[in-house]
Design goal:
With about 425 residues, the chain is mainly α. It has helices at about 30-40, 45, 50-55, 60-85, 90-100, 100-130, 140-155, 160-185, 205-220, 235-265, 270, 275-285, 290-320, 340-355, 360-385, 400-415; strands spanning about 10-15, 20. It has a single domain (about 30-415), classed as Amino acid/polyamine transporter I, CATH 1.20.1740.10. It has a two-stranded antiparallel ribbon with strand order 1-2. The protein is globular.
Length: about 425
């Protein structure tokens, strides 16, 4: 057996043929979907809805639609790629299989890890903004506490971490549904005002819409992280593909609905100025205290941090197994069965960035790096398909034009959003 390859019983063989603890296949489709929703729904809607509205105005819902359409082709491509190569550090495996260039494989793997770190920092700042509404502590103290505690949860164990994150995911989705329900009750005429939502694509509005779509794109980042737990998923050829599409579909419905309610209830310019936009939205619509929705927003953002730290640590683990990074990053604790060093580095790096940079800048850079990774991943699938490499049985297959269109759409948003 190749060093670092997954075994069903959760152990891997090293070169000396000694058994070491490895990752364990315990995750079913519902748990993987909860992971996907947990890493997708969070700062993107709970925090960055204000940034998106500030740039797109009444076109904010359209920005989320555009971002989801750009995501669709990479999502389908990732479904096939993960079925072909169900490993941690998946994007690095995709590029390695297609191009056989060690430097490019390492660069992609590190880029994916950096997305997890920068995204964690972004979400951490969003979480701190909500926590500051209920706790009177210095900003730096709040941010530090967030990453120390979430790092410990991520190191706890993959099944335990995802079950905990799954519970938080259900709570955060409940918060979004509560906002929509509040709008239906307190703003009964809101459906009759949908014509106020702008779908204009004239030249004057395009720059703001493109910039808003780049921010909104951050809200959908997450589905691709599902592939990072492929080695811990039962029947990954089938499960990962379904989980990707379910995650993307549910996220799109929630985002567009909440964005529509937000810009109809609060002036977009005002929405952009608040650090807790959905708390302000809930209070404005219902006249009730925003404490409950603030607590849910805290849960949502903390959940996003946990799953991003998990993803980053698995990427570092996977790169070490491919001998692209020192072997110490692949060490798995015999009790928690998690890569503790990689987890600590992921949490610590995110903490440093969160203390050093503003949230909007971090979100934009996360989106840019992710778009570049998507372009390479879709290009890898094009090359693999042209080569005629047969996929494993049960793998989700897409037509060749899907990854080609993915390259084009991601490239357009990357250039237009800049």
């Amino acid at each position: 057996m190749r060093a670092g390859s997954p075994c069903d019983h959760g152990y891997v063989m090293n070169k000396a043929s000694t058994i070491e603890p490895g990752l364990k296949r315990t995750l079913s489709l519902p748990m993987v979907v909860l992971y996907g929703l947990g890493v997708t729904i969070g700062a993107g809607i709970y925090v960055l809805i204000g940034e998106t509205a500030g740039r797109a105005g009444m076109s904010a819902p359209l920005a989320f639609v555009i971002a989801s359409l750009v995501m669709a082709c990479p999502a389908a491509s990732f479904a096939e790629l993960t079925g072909r190569l169900p490993f941690a550090a998946a994007e690095a495996h995709f590029v390695d299989e297609a191009f056989h260039m060690n430097w490019l494989t390492l660069a992609v793997g590190l880029a994916v890890a950096s997305v997890g770190v920068v995204s964690s920092a972004t979400i951490g700042l969003g979480s701190a903004g909500y926590i500051a509404q209920v706790v009177d502590l210095p900003h730096a103290a709040i941010v530090t506490a967030i990453f120390v505690l979430m790092g410990l949860v991520a190191a706890w164990g993959i099944r335990e971490s995802i079950l905990f994150a799954g519970l938080l995911t259900l709570i955060e989705i409940g918060g979004l549904l509560a906002i929509l329900a509040g709008a239906a009750v307190s703003e009964a005429d809101i459906l009759y005002r949908l014509d106020e939502i702008s779908v204009a694509l004239d030249r004057a509005h395009l720059p703001g819409l493109a910039a808003a779509s780049l921010i909104a794109f951050f809200a959908f980042i997450g589905f691709e992280n599902i592939d990072s737990i492929a080695e811990e998923t039962k029947n990954p050829q089938r499960t990962i593909g379904y989980a990707i599409f379910i995650t993307l579909g549910l996220s799109t419905l929630l985002y567009v609905a909440v964005a529509t309610v937000a810009v109809l209830a609060i002036d977009p310019a005002e929405l952009a100025l608040t650090e807790a936009p959905l708390a302000a939205l809930f209070s404005r619509m219902t006249g009730m205290s925003p404490v409950a929705i603030t607590l849910i927003a805290i849960v949502a953002t903390l959940n996003g941090i946990i799953v991003q730290i998990i993803m980053t640590s698995r990427v570092l683990y996977g790169l070490a197994n491919k001998k692209q990074l020192p072997a110490i990053f692949a060490l798995v604790h015999s009790v928690t069965r998690t890569p503790l060093l990689a987890t600590g580095i992921a949490a610590g790096s995110a903490l440093v960035l969160a203390l050093a940079f503003p949230i909007s800048g971090l979100a934009e850079w996360t989106s840019r790096i992710t778009l570049a990774i998507f372009i390479l991943a879709c290009s890898a699938l094009v090359r693999i398909k042209l080569r005629g490499t047969p996929p494993p049985p049960g793998t989700f297959i897409v037509p060749l034009w899907v990854p080609v269109l993915g390259v084009l759409l991601c490239g357009v948003l990357l250039v237009a959003g800049g």
